[in-house]
């Protein structure tokens, strides 16, 4: 990618070049490709769509280079550092300690934690799986370096992140891609720490943020992920990998609230995965494809994944059925990102599923974009 000039070890430089070559070899985007979110919704009055919408609808992702300035990215990093210092006190008996996992243990980690469920409209902090001592204190001298993520209400609770989330640039992009009545269920700050930043296994975002047809109640996905790089994200420090075209596949599973637990059986986990028998089976569901790690990551290329390297300030946007992942960060380089998730609103015929893990308490409502600029 132009602009990334960091010197890489030979095997990683080869990996970068192979990834760039794979992206270059993708056929030209189909200008007549139907909109992922709704037929013709990303086309103008003459039935045409922008180049970025055509690429997004054809391959399931779009990279907006320089979406924010490097200065704005640094400002977000600085603000999160302040929030961690002021509000995260690991080892304090008055504040729960929680870890976040994306591996086979994620149901027991996230699925048994009130602290996780209560984070919907707040800012809660989640450590890396091996970063805490038994008493909840951190193993590192700098507590920031123990964190996996902060979420899931930064777009509600903090002015800087709220202003970005509802900026005209976001509105214009989302509108161009076909969303007309979007709301924001969640936001996350991901740390991907140097040397200990864990992998994020293969998944589709709609698994965790699913919607339904407002009339029929049948599953109808509308999630849109906006992945903003706050540091350079490369094959060295755990950049995003996507499987182009996989957004056209059905949602493989849903992460649901367990009705048995919420009916009163507290011996059951709070959350469970519900498999979709109509979706294509993939051998790497919830894990990494065989041969993903260490580089040269032959297993990823063999299964159609490509790395998407970013400069600080670049934004990757993709629908909720795109298969994607990231590898561990064993480098000495940080790789922070701010990730925003939208879903289409009820005016456009979509309904937030009441089985989603994320539910606002009381009368709380998701942040609306309206009015979206025409």
Explain what the structure shows.
This is Phytanoyl-CoA dioxygenase. One of its GO terms (molecular function) is metal ion binding. InterPro entries: Phytyl_CoA_dOase-like. Keywords: Iron, Metal-binding. With 374 residues, the protein is of the alpha+beta class. The protein has helices at 10-24, 51-59, 70-87, 106-110, 114-117, 154-157, 159-165, 168-177, 259-262, 298-302; strands spanning 62-64, 123-127, 147-152, 182-190, 200-203, 211-213, 224-229, 240-242, 253-257, 271-275, 306-308, 315-319, 324-326, 337-344, 350-352, 367-368. Strands 1, 2, 3, 4, 7, 12, 14 and 16 form an 8-stranded antiparallel β-sheet that branches. It has a 4-stranded antiparallel β-sheet with strand order 5-13-8-11. The radius of gyration is 20 Å and the shape is globular.
Estimated structural class: alpha+beta
Shape: globular
Order of helix and strand elements from N to C terminus? HHEHHHEEHHHEEEEEEHEHEEEEEE
**Total domain count:** 1
Largest sheet, in brief, is: 8 strands, antiparallel
Beta percentage is 15-25%
Radius of gyration: 20 Å
Give the terminus-to-terminus CA distance: 32 Å
Spans where pLDDT lies below 50 across 5 or more residues: none
| CATH class wording | Mainly Beta
What percent of the residues sit in helical stretches (DSSP H or I)?
Answer: 10-25%
State the total count of DSSP E strands: 16
Fourth-level CATH superfamily: q2cbj1_9rhob like domain
- Average pLDDT rating: 90
At CATH level 3, the topology is Jelly Rolls
Counting H and I runs of at least 4 residues, what is the number of helices? 10
> What is the correct CATH architecture?
Sandwich
């Amino acid at each position: 990618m132009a602009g990334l000039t960091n010197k890489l070890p030979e095997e990683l430089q080869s990996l970068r070049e192979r990834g760039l070559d794979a992206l270059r070899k993708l056929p030209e985007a189909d200008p007549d490709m139907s909109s992922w979110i709704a037929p013709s919704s990303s086309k103008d009055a003459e039935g045409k769509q922008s180049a970025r919408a055509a690429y997004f609808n054809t391959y399931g992702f779009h990279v907006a280079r320089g979406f924010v300035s490097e200065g704005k990215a640094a400002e977000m990093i600085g603000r999160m550092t302040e929030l961690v210092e002021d509000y995260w006190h690991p080892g304090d008996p008055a504040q729960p300690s929680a870890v976040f996992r994306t591996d086979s243990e994620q149901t027991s980690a996230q699925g048994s934690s009130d602290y996780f469920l209560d984070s919907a409209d707040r800012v809660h902090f989640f450590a890396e799986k091996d970063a805490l001592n038994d008493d909840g204190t951190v193993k590192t001298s700098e507590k920031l370096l123990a964190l996996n993520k902060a979420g899931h209400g930064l777009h509600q609770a903090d002015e800087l992140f709220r202003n970005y989330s509802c900026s005209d640039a976001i509105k214009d992009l989302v509108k161009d891609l076909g969303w007309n009545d979007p709301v924001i269920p969640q936001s996350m700050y991901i740390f991907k720490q140097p040397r200990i930043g864990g992998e994020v296994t293969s998944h589709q975002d709609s698994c965790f943020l699913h919607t339904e047809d407002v009339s029929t109640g049948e599953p109808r996905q509308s999630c849109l992920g906006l992945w903003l790089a706050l540091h350079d994200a490369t094959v060295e420090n755990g950049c995003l990998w996507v499987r182009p075209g996989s957004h056209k596949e059905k949602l493989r599973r849903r992460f649901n609230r367990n009705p048995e637990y919420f009916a009163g059986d507290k011996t059951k986990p709070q959350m469970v995965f519900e498999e979709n028998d109509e979706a294509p089976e993939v051998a790497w569901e919830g894990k990494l494809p065989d041969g993903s790690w260490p580089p040269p990551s032959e297993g990823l290329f063999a299964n159609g994944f490509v790395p998407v390297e970013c400069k600080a300030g670049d934004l990757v946007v993709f629908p909720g059925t795109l298969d994607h992942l990231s590898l561990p960060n064993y480098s000495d380089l940080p790789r922070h990102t701010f990730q925003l998730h939208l879903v289409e609103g009820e005016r456009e015929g979509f309904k937030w599923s009441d089985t989603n893990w994320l539910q606002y308490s009381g009368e709380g409502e998701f942040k609306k974009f309206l009015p979206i600029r025409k």
